[in-house]
Amino acid sequence: MLALTPRGEPERRMQDIARTRLTNLGASEPVPAVAPVIAAPAPVIVERRVALVIGNSAYPGASRLTNPINDADDVTVALRQVGFNVIEGKDLGLAGFSRVISEFADEAKGADVALIYYAGHAIQFDETNWLMPVDARLTKAFDMRHSSVSLQDLMLEVETRANTTLIFLDACRNNPLADEFRSSLKAEGRAYSDTRGLARININAPQTMVVYAARPNAIAADGHRRNSPFTEAFLQYLPTPGVEIEVLMKRVTAAVSASTDGKQQPERLSRLEREFYFVPGIDSPARAQAEMPSIKAVAQKIAQMISGDKAKMAAYCDIVKLADQMAQLDENKDQKKAQELNKQADTLGQKIGPEYVKLMAWLAQVDLHSKEGKDVSLVLDPLDEMCAKK
Q1: pLDDT tens per residue, range 271-291
Q2: What are phi and psi of 267, to 5 degrees?
Q3: What is the pLDDT of residue 203?
Q4: Which residue has the higher pLDDT, 159 or 243?
Q5: Where are the domains of the chain?
Q6: CATH 3.30.43.10 for the 49-291 domain, yes or no
Q7: Which of 190, 201, 203, 384 is 20 to 30 A from 31 (CA-CA)?
Q8: What is the pLDDT of residue 125?
Q9: pTM of the complete model
Q10: Distance CA 27, CA 139 (A)
Protein backbone atom coordinates (compact mmCIF):
# COMPACT_ATOMS: atom_id res chain seq x y z
CA MET A 1 0.00 0.00 0.00
CA LEU A 2 0.99 3.65 -0.12
CA ALA A 3 2.90 5.07 2.77
CA LEU A 4 -0.14 5.99 4.88
CA THR A 5 -0.78 4.62 8.32
CA PRO A 6 -4.05 2.64 8.22
CA ARG A 7 -6.39 3.54 11.04
CA GLY A 8 -9.41 1.56 10.02
CA GLU A 9 -11.30 -0.08 7.19
CA PRO A 10 -12.06 3.15 5.26
CA GLU A 11 -8.40 4.15 5.30
CA ARG A 12 -7.30 0.68 4.17
CA ARG A 13 -9.84 0.83 1.35
CA MET A 14 -8.50 4.21 0.26
CA GLN A 15 -4.99 2.79 0.21
CA ASP A 16 -6.16 -0.11 -1.97
CA ILE A 17 -7.70 2.37 -4.39
CA ALA A 18 -4.54 4.46 -4.37
CA ARG A 19 -2.30 1.47 -5.13
CA THR A 20 -4.60 0.36 -7.95
CA ARG A 21 -4.54 3.82 -9.47
CA LEU A 22 -0.80 4.15 -8.95
CA THR A 23 -0.23 1.12 -11.18
CA ASN A 24 -2.48 2.66 -13.80
CA LEU A 25 -1.04 6.19 -13.60
CA GLY A 26 1.73 6.61 -16.12
CA ALA A 27 0.71 3.38 -17.83
CA SER A 28 -1.39 4.78 -20.63
CA GLU A 29 -0.35 2.11 -23.12
CA PRO A 30 -2.75 -0.81 -23.65
CA VAL A 31 -2.15 -3.76 -21.36
CA PRO A 32 0.21 -6.08 -23.28
CA ALA A 33 -1.14 -9.47 -24.29
CA VAL A 34 2.30 -10.97 -23.75
CA ALA A 35 4.31 -10.50 -20.58
CA PRO A 36 7.24 -8.06 -20.77
CA VAL A 37 10.69 -9.59 -20.99
CA ILE A 38 12.60 -9.13 -17.74
CA ALA A 39 15.98 -10.61 -18.60
CA ALA A 40 18.02 -9.71 -21.66
CA PRO A 41 20.12 -12.81 -22.47
CA ALA A 42 18.63 -15.57 -24.59
CA PRO A 43 17.08 -17.82 -23.63
CA VAL A 44 15.04 -15.69 -21.24
CA ILE A 45 14.53 -17.63 -18.02
CA VAL A 46 12.67 -15.81 -15.27
CA GLU A 47 12.16 -18.77 -12.94
CA ARG A 48 14.72 -18.67 -10.13
CA ARG A 49 17.41 -21.27 -10.74
CA VAL A 50 20.25 -21.83 -8.28
CA ALA A 51 23.12 -24.31 -8.39
CA LEU A 52 25.96 -25.55 -6.21
CA VAL A 53 28.88 -26.91 -8.26
CA ILE A 54 31.83 -28.56 -6.48
CA GLY A 55 34.97 -29.98 -8.04
CA ASN A 56 37.54 -31.64 -5.76
CA SER A 57 40.83 -32.72 -7.33
CA ALA A 58 43.61 -32.00 -4.82
CA TYR A 59 43.41 -35.19 -2.74
CA PRO A 60 46.70 -36.39 -1.25
CA GLY A 61 49.04 -38.77 -3.08
CA ALA A 62 47.59 -41.37 -5.39
CA SER A 63 44.06 -40.22 -4.61
CA ARG A 64 44.52 -37.03 -6.62
CA LEU A 65 42.10 -36.59 -9.52
CA THR A 66 42.73 -34.68 -12.74
CA ASN A 67 39.35 -33.65 -14.08
CA PRO A 68 36.98 -32.51 -11.30
CA ILE A 69 38.33 -28.93 -11.34
CA ASN A 70 37.79 -28.75 -15.10
CA ASP A 71 34.38 -30.37 -14.72
CA ALA A 72 33.31 -27.80 -12.12
CA ASP A 73 34.55 -24.85 -14.18
CA ASP A 74 32.83 -26.00 -17.38
CA VAL A 75 29.55 -27.00 -15.71
CA THR A 76 29.45 -23.63 -13.92
CA VAL A 77 29.78 -21.76 -17.22
CA ALA A 78 27.15 -23.93 -18.91
CA LEU A 79 24.63 -23.52 -16.08
CA ARG A 80 25.08 -19.76 -15.94
CA GLN A 81 24.35 -19.59 -19.65
CA VAL A 82 20.94 -21.17 -19.05
CA GLY A 83 19.95 -18.91 -16.18
CA PHE A 84 21.39 -20.49 -13.03
CA ASN A 85 22.90 -18.45 -10.23
CA VAL A 86 25.88 -20.68 -9.40
CA ILE A 87 27.87 -21.05 -6.21
CA GLU A 88 31.12 -22.78 -7.18
CA GLY A 89 33.56 -24.53 -4.85
CA LYS A 90 36.87 -26.10 -5.83
CA ASP A 91 39.27 -28.25 -3.80
CA LEU A 92 37.19 -27.76 -0.68
CA GLY A 93 38.22 -28.97 2.74
CA LEU A 94 35.56 -29.80 5.31
CA ALA A 95 35.27 -26.18 6.48
CA GLY A 96 34.86 -24.93 2.91
CA PHE A 97 32.35 -27.67 2.17
CA SER A 98 30.25 -26.65 5.18
CA ARG A 99 30.43 -22.99 4.18
CA VAL A 100 29.18 -23.43 0.60
CA ILE A 101 26.43 -25.84 1.69
CA SER A 102 25.15 -23.30 4.21
CA GLU A 103 25.31 -20.53 1.61
CA PHE A 104 23.53 -22.67 -0.96
CA ALA A 105 20.81 -23.78 1.45
CA ASP A 106 19.95 -20.13 2.05
CA GLU A 107 20.02 -19.40 -1.69
CA ALA A 108 17.80 -22.40 -2.48
CA LYS A 109 14.96 -21.24 -0.24
CA GLY A 110 11.97 -20.55 -2.46
CA ALA A 111 13.88 -21.30 -5.68
CA ASP A 112 12.09 -22.87 -8.62
CA VAL A 113 15.04 -25.18 -9.29
CA ALA A 114 17.98 -26.10 -7.05
CA LEU A 115 20.77 -28.11 -8.67
CA ILE A 116 23.83 -29.77 -7.11
CA TYR A 117 26.71 -31.01 -9.25
CA TYR A 118 29.54 -32.80 -7.44
CA ALA A 119 32.73 -34.08 -9.06
CA GLY A 120 35.29 -35.75 -6.81
CA HIS A 121 35.74 -38.70 -4.48
CA ALA A 122 32.91 -40.28 -2.52
CA ILE A 123 32.38 -43.52 -0.64
CA GLN A 124 29.48 -45.55 0.72
CA PHE A 125 29.59 -46.64 4.36
CA ASP A 126 26.84 -47.84 6.68
CA GLU A 127 24.25 -47.40 3.89
CA THR A 128 25.18 -43.73 3.55
CA ASN A 129 27.01 -42.01 0.71
CA TRP A 130 29.77 -39.68 1.87
CA LEU A 131 31.22 -36.88 -0.26
CA MET A 132 34.91 -36.41 0.51
CA PRO A 133 36.57 -33.04 1.14
CA VAL A 134 40.20 -32.87 0.03
CA ASP A 135 41.38 -32.90 3.66
CA ALA A 136 39.37 -35.99 4.64
CA ARG A 137 41.37 -38.49 6.68
CA LEU A 138 39.78 -41.92 6.74
CA THR A 139 41.40 -44.31 9.19
CA LYS A 140 38.43 -45.09 11.43
CA ALA A 141 34.65 -45.06 11.21
CA PHE A 142 34.66 -41.98 13.45
CA ASP A 143 36.74 -40.15 10.82
CA MET A 144 34.15 -40.86 8.13
CA ARG A 145 31.32 -39.29 10.08
CA HIS A 146 33.30 -36.24 11.13
CA SER A 147 35.52 -35.43 8.15
CA SER A 148 33.16 -36.17 5.24
CA VAL A 149 29.75 -34.86 4.11
CA SER A 150 26.68 -37.08 4.07
CA LEU A 151 24.90 -36.92 0.72
CA GLN A 152 21.60 -37.74 2.41
CA ASP A 153 22.03 -34.85 4.85
CA LEU A 154 22.89 -32.50 2.00
CA MET A 155 19.73 -33.55 0.16
CA LEU A 156 17.61 -32.89 3.25
CA GLU A 157 19.05 -29.38 3.43
CA VAL A 158 17.96 -28.57 -0.11
CA GLU A 159 15.03 -30.67 -1.29
CA THR A 160 12.49 -29.08 1.06
CA ARG A 161 13.54 -25.54 0.11
CA ALA A 162 13.15 -25.59 -3.69
CA ASN A 163 10.28 -26.63 -5.94
CA THR A 164 12.52 -28.93 -8.01
CA THR A 165 15.80 -30.52 -6.89
CA LEU A 166 18.34 -31.99 -9.33
CA ILE A 167 21.48 -33.75 -8.07
CA PHE A 168 24.33 -34.97 -10.27
CA LEU A 169 27.07 -37.15 -8.78
CA ASP A 170 30.18 -37.67 -10.87
CA ALA A 171 31.73 -39.25 -7.83
CA CYS A 172 32.10 -42.98 -8.35
CA ARG A 173 35.77 -42.81 -9.31
CA ASN A 174 38.48 -45.26 -8.27
CA ASN A 175 39.39 -44.20 -4.75
CA PRO A 176 42.61 -45.29 -2.96
CA LEU A 177 41.44 -43.51 0.19
CA ALA A 178 38.40 -45.77 0.27
CA ASP A 179 40.65 -48.82 -0.11
CA GLU A 180 42.76 -47.68 2.85
CA PHE A 181 39.62 -47.09 4.89
CA ARG A 182 38.32 -50.59 4.23
CA SER A 183 41.70 -52.05 5.13
CA SER A 184 41.64 -50.24 8.48
CA LEU A 185 38.13 -51.53 9.20
CA LYS A 186 39.23 -55.05 8.35
CA ALA A 187 42.21 -54.76 10.70
CA GLU A 188 39.85 -53.69 13.48
CA GLY A 189 37.61 -56.68 12.80
CA ARG A 190 34.68 -54.47 11.85
CA ALA A 191 32.08 -55.47 9.29
CA TYR A 192 32.18 -53.44 6.09
CA SER A 193 30.91 -53.50 2.54
CA ASP A 194 33.44 -54.31 -0.14
CA THR A 195 31.28 -52.78 -2.86
CA ARG A 196 32.62 -49.93 -4.97
CA GLY A 197 31.02 -46.69 -6.03
CA LEU A 198 27.96 -45.23 -4.36
CA ALA A 199 24.87 -46.84 -2.87
CA ARG A 200 21.37 -46.45 -4.24
CA ILE A 201 19.38 -44.10 -2.02
CA ASN A 202 15.71 -43.46 -1.32
CA ILE A 203 14.27 -40.19 -2.55
CA ASN A 204 11.79 -38.89 -0.03
CA ALA A 205 10.83 -35.53 -1.50
CA PRO A 206 8.71 -35.24 -4.66
CA GLN A 207 10.01 -33.37 -7.70
CA THR A 208 13.56 -34.64 -7.10
CA MET A 209 16.04 -36.37 -9.40
CA VAL A 210 19.38 -37.92 -8.45
CA VAL A 211 21.78 -38.89 -11.25
CA TYR A 212 24.81 -41.15 -10.76
CA ALA A 213 27.68 -41.02 -13.24
CA ALA A 214 27.80 -44.83 -12.98
CA ARG A 215 25.41 -47.51 -11.75
CA PRO A 216 25.28 -47.89 -7.97
CA ASN A 217 28.17 -50.02 -6.65
CA ALA A 218 30.12 -49.43 -9.87
CA ILE A 219 33.17 -47.30 -10.75
CA ALA A 220 33.14 -44.23 -13.01
CA ALA A 221 36.13 -43.12 -15.06
CA ASP A 222 37.97 -39.86 -14.42
CA GLY A 223 38.72 -39.70 -18.15
CA HIS A 224 41.78 -38.93 -20.24
CA ARG A 225 40.52 -35.68 -21.76
CA ARG A 226 39.56 -32.35 -20.23
CA ASN A 227 36.37 -33.72 -18.67
CA SER A 228 35.18 -37.02 -17.30
CA PRO A 229 33.05 -39.10 -19.70
CA PHE A 230 29.90 -38.22 -17.76
CA THR A 231 30.56 -34.48 -17.57
CA GLU A 232 31.58 -34.38 -21.21
CA ALA A 233 28.27 -35.93 -22.26
CA PHE A 234 26.28 -33.73 -19.86
CA LEU A 235 27.88 -30.60 -21.30
CA GLN A 236 27.19 -31.81 -24.82
CA TYR A 237 23.43 -32.18 -24.33
CA LEU A 238 22.62 -29.56 -21.66
CA PRO A 239 22.22 -26.60 -24.09
CA THR A 240 19.96 -28.49 -26.53
CA PRO A 241 16.66 -26.56 -26.83
CA GLY A 242 13.37 -28.34 -26.22
CA VAL A 243 14.76 -31.53 -24.62
CA GLU A 244 13.05 -32.53 -21.36
CA ILE A 245 15.49 -33.62 -18.66
CA GLU A 246 14.44 -37.28 -18.61
CA VAL A 247 15.09 -37.51 -22.35
CA LEU A 248 18.29 -35.49 -22.00
CA MET A 249 19.64 -37.93 -19.40
CA LYS A 250 18.83 -40.88 -21.66
CA ARG A 251 21.04 -39.26 -24.28
CA VAL A 252 23.78 -38.65 -21.72
CA THR A 253 23.60 -42.29 -20.61
CA ALA A 254 23.89 -43.54 -24.20
CA ALA A 255 26.84 -41.22 -24.90
CA VAL A 256 28.73 -42.30 -21.76
CA SER A 257 28.13 -45.96 -22.48
CA ALA A 258 29.39 -45.51 -26.05
CA SER A 259 32.51 -43.56 -25.04
CA THR A 260 33.50 -46.16 -22.40
CA ASP A 261 32.67 -49.26 -24.50
CA GLY A 262 29.80 -50.07 -22.16
CA LYS A 263 31.98 -50.09 -19.03
CA GLN A 264 30.21 -47.11 -17.49
CA GLN A 265 26.47 -46.54 -17.53
CA PRO A 266 24.90 -43.61 -15.65
CA GLU A 267 21.75 -44.24 -13.66
CA ARG A 268 19.08 -41.89 -12.40
CA LEU A 269 16.49 -42.04 -9.67
CA SER A 270 13.55 -39.76 -10.28
CA ARG A 271 10.42 -38.55 -8.59
CA LEU A 272 9.87 -35.75 -11.07
CA GLU A 273 6.19 -35.11 -11.74
CA ARG A 274 6.62 -31.95 -13.81
CA GLU A 275 8.69 -31.47 -16.92
CA PHE A 276 11.95 -29.55 -16.71
CA TYR A 277 13.94 -28.09 -19.60
CA PHE A 278 17.40 -26.57 -19.23
CA VAL A 279 16.60 -24.73 -22.47
CA PRO A 280 12.90 -24.77 -23.42
CA GLY A 281 12.07 -25.12 -27.11
CA ILE A 282 11.29 -21.90 -28.98
CA ASP A 283 7.61 -22.68 -29.49
CA SER A 284 7.04 -25.00 -26.53
CA PRO A 285 4.54 -24.25 -23.74
CA ALA A 286 7.38 -24.91 -21.31
CA ARG A 287 9.42 -22.06 -22.77
CA ALA A 288 6.44 -19.73 -22.71
CA GLN A 289 5.95 -20.57 -19.03
CA ALA A 290 9.66 -20.19 -18.29
CA GLU A 291 9.72 -16.77 -19.95
CA MET A 292 6.59 -15.53 -18.19
CA PRO A 293 7.81 -13.21 -15.46
CA SER A 294 6.28 -13.42 -12.04
CA ILE A 295 4.41 -10.34 -10.87
CA LYS A 296 7.03 -9.99 -8.15
CA ALA A 297 9.79 -9.99 -10.80
CA VAL A 298 8.03 -7.16 -12.63
CA ALA A 299 7.74 -5.14 -9.41
CA GLN A 300 11.40 -5.81 -8.59
CA LYS A 301 12.42 -4.61 -12.04
CA ILE A 302 10.50 -1.37 -11.49
CA ALA A 303 12.06 -0.87 -8.05
CA GLN A 304 15.54 -1.52 -9.43
CA MET A 305 14.95 0.89 -12.31
CA ILE A 306 13.79 3.71 -10.01
CA SER A 307 15.86 3.38 -6.84
CA GLY A 308 19.22 3.85 -8.54
CA ASP A 309 18.33 7.08 -10.36
CA LYS A 310 17.49 10.34 -8.53
CA ALA A 311 15.53 11.85 -11.42
CA LYS A 312 13.45 8.70 -11.90
CA MET A 313 12.87 8.44 -8.16
CA ALA A 314 11.64 12.06 -8.06
CA ALA A 315 9.24 11.40 -10.95
CA TYR A 316 7.98 8.21 -9.27
CA CYS A 317 7.37 10.11 -6.01
CA ASP A 318 5.36 12.70 -7.92
CA ILE A 319 3.25 9.87 -9.39
CA VAL A 320 2.73 8.50 -5.85
CA LYS A 321 1.40 11.92 -4.80
CA LEU A 322 -0.93 11.97 -7.79
CA ALA A 323 -2.16 8.49 -6.91
CA ASP A 324 -2.88 9.68 -3.38
CA GLN A 325 -4.92 12.54 -4.82
CA MET A 326 -6.67 10.16 -7.21
CA ALA A 327 -7.71 7.96 -4.30
CA GLN A 328 -9.65 10.86 -2.79
CA LEU A 329 -11.73 11.50 -5.91
CA ASP A 330 -15.27 10.42 -6.57
CA GLU A 331 -15.13 8.50 -9.84
CA ASN A 332 -18.54 9.78 -10.94
CA LYS A 333 -18.22 13.46 -9.96
CA ASP A 334 -14.52 14.19 -10.52
CA GLN A 335 -13.88 12.78 -13.99
CA LYS A 336 -12.29 15.99 -15.29
CA LYS A 337 -9.89 16.14 -12.35
CA ALA A 338 -9.06 12.47 -12.82
CA GLN A 339 -8.21 13.11 -16.47
CA GLU A 340 -5.87 15.93 -15.45
CA LEU A 341 -4.10 13.71 -12.92
CA ASN A 342 -3.77 10.93 -15.47
CA LYS A 343 -2.25 13.32 -17.98
CA GLN A 344 0.29 14.58 -15.43
CA ALA A 345 1.13 11.03 -14.41
CA ASP A 346 1.55 9.98 -18.04
CA THR A 347 4.07 12.77 -18.57
CA LEU A 348 5.99 11.68 -15.46
CA GLY A 349 5.88 8.04 -16.52
CA GLN A 350 7.41 8.92 -19.89
CA LYS A 351 10.20 10.75 -18.04
CA ILE A 352 11.02 7.53 -16.20
CA GLY A 353 11.06 5.70 -19.51
CA PRO A 354 9.09 3.53 -21.96
CA GLU A 355 10.09 0.33 -20.14
CA TYR A 356 8.57 1.68 -16.92
CA VAL A 357 5.31 2.44 -18.76
CA LYS A 358 5.12 -1.08 -20.18
CA LEU A 359 5.93 -2.74 -16.86
CA MET A 360 3.36 -0.63 -15.02
CA ALA A 361 0.74 -1.58 -17.62
CA TRP A 362 1.48 -5.23 -16.88
CA LEU A 363 1.36 -4.62 -13.12
CA ALA A 364 -2.02 -2.89 -13.43
CA GLN A 365 -3.64 -6.31 -13.99
CA VAL A 366 -2.88 -7.47 -10.45
CA ASP A 367 -5.63 -8.12 -7.91
CA LEU A 368 -4.35 -6.29 -4.81
CA HIS A 369 -5.86 -8.87 -2.47
CA SER A 370 -4.16 -11.83 -4.18
CA LYS A 371 -0.78 -13.27 -3.25
CA GLU A 372 0.70 -11.45 -6.24
CA GLY A 373 -0.79 -8.19 -5.04
CA LYS A 374 0.84 -8.65 -1.65
CA ASP A 375 4.15 -9.37 -3.41
CA VAL A 376 3.83 -6.05 -5.25
CA SER A 377 3.23 -4.23 -1.98
CA LEU A 378 6.25 -5.86 -0.33
CA VAL A 379 8.49 -4.69 -3.17
CA LEU A 380 7.09 -1.19 -3.73
CA ASP A 381 6.19 -0.19 -0.16
CA PRO A 382 9.79 0.82 0.69
CA LEU A 383 9.82 3.17 -2.32
CA ASP A 384 6.52 4.71 -1.24
CA GLU A 385 7.89 5.23 2.28
CA MET A 386 10.92 6.98 0.84
CA CYS A 387 8.59 9.25 -1.12
CA ALA A 388 6.58 10.03 2.00
CA LYS A 389 9.74 11.27 3.77
CA LYS A 390 10.62 13.71 1.00
Answers
A1: 999 999 998 876 555 555 555
A2: -140, 145
A3: 84
A4: 243
A5: 9-38+293-389, 49-291
A6: no
A7: 384
A8: 72
A9: 0.60
A10: 68
SS (H, E, C) 315-353: HHHHHHHHHHHHHCCCCCCCHHHHHHHHHHHHHHHHHHC
Q: Residue 263: how many CA atoms within 13 Å on its side-chain side?
A: 11
The mean per-residue pLDDT over the stretch 146-168 comes to 87
CA–CA separation, 376 and 200 (whole Å):
44
| Angle at 173 (CA atoms; ends 170, 178), nearest 5 degrees | 125
Note the pLDDT tens digit of each residue in 64-95: 888 899 999 999 999 999 999 999 999 999 99
Which pLDDT belongs to residue 380? 79
Choose among 160, 136, 164, 139: nearest CA to 150. Answer: 136
**How far is Cα 342 from Cα 248, in angstroms, rounded to an integer?**
52
Q: Is the pLDDT of residue 293 over 70?
A: no
Cis check for the bond before 43: say yes or no (omega within 30 of 0): yes
Report yes or no: 238 and 278 within 8 Å, Cβ to Cβ.
Answer: yes
Phi, psi (rounded to 5 degrees) for 348: -65, -40
Q: In what order do the strands lie in the sheet with 128-131?
A: 122-125, 128-131, 149-150
